């Protein structure tokens, strides 16, 4: 069986937001939910519950984003601070 990028879904208290998605994306989410359910032996009643773990996975594996989070913020030059103050 194909290894999917998502594993079992965590049972977590959600924060409610409203998002509109294209119908084609909803169809893809439904198909992915079916495949994930078969792979993990669980039923995913609401394919929209996949959005959060997919976004978390995307952010966690985005190397460019990770670099921006680990890079220290530039500190103003002391001479420059004295001139402006």
Structure characterization notes:
This protein has 85 residues and is mainly alpha-helical. It is built from 4 helices and no strands. The longest helix is centred in the middle third of the chain and has 18 residues, at 23-40. The radius of gyration is 20 Å and the shape is elongated.
Number of helices: 4
Instruction: Give the helix proportion (percent range).
Output: 40-55%
Largest sheet: none
Shape: elongated
Cα gyration radius (Å): 20 Å
Quantity of strands, as a count: 0
Mean of the pLDDT scores?
82
Order of helices and strands: HHHH
Unreliable residue stretches = none
Fraction in beta strands: under 5%
Q: In brief, what are we looking at here?
A:
With 85 residues, the protein is mainly α. Helix content is 51%, strand content 0%.
What tags apply to this protein structure?
85 residues, mainly alpha, 4 helices, 51% helix, elongated
Map the helices and strands:
Elements: H1 23-40, H2 51-60, H3 63-70, H4 78-84
